Amino acid sequence: LEILDFEERAKDVQLYRVTKQTQEIIQGKHQKKDEEDKKRLENQIKQLEENAQKRIKTINETKQKLKREIREKKLESEQLETKARQLQNSVDQRKQIMSLKSNTQGDTEADKSKKLKEIAHKRKLLDIAKQQTEEIEVLRDELDRLRARTFPSFAHLHNKPGYPDEN
């Protein structure tokens, strides 16, 4: 029985079609090819890790820069808000002074020239108040614009060359 088994195996080996891959396995080239593939893949992994570290470093530097710019813009924004509040207080005080002046003076015929001067002065103060109100509005618009600029935009990072997987 064993002899028949061996004879059948020998016949199978003789009739077996040898392919290129089978020849490589028999000659041991297959192992060399696997080792070369392994080395190539290891080098590729190493390169990808290095690129990832460089990108992470660049992104972190950009992040720190943007944080610093945000702090600066917040400080500038607070200063503008303080100035706007001071100007608004000044306008309110002037309005209050004008209302007090108009209430304390009487309406006599002898004081007509004085009344005209008061009206002119009142008009001048109103013009100043209006001008300061407009300046406050301009400062508020500037503040809103500066606040809008503090939000980061990453569009400029997308177009930077040097990242091999982004082409």
TrEMBL record:
<keyword id="KW-0206">Cytoskeleton</keyword>
<keyword id="KW-0677">Repeat</keyword>
<keyword id="KW-0963">Cytoplasm</keyword>
<feature type="coiled-coil region">
    <location>
        <begin position="122"/>
        <end position="149"/>
    </location>
</feature>
<keyword id="KW-0853">WD repeat</keyword>
<dbReference type="GO" id="GO:0060271">
    <property type="term" value="P:cilium assembly"/>
</dbReference>
<dbReference type="Pfam" id="PF25828">
    <property type="entry name" value="CC_Cfap43"/>
</dbReference>
<dbReference type="GO" id="GO:0005930">
    <property type="term" value="C:axoneme"/>
</dbReference>
<protein>
    <submittedName>
        <fullName>Uncharacterized protein</fullName>
    </submittedName>
</protein>
<keyword id="KW-0966">Cell projection</keyword>
<feature type="region of interest" description="Disordered">
    <location>
        <begin position="86"/>
        <end position="115"/>
    </location>
</feature>
<keyword id="KW-0175">Coiled coil</keyword>
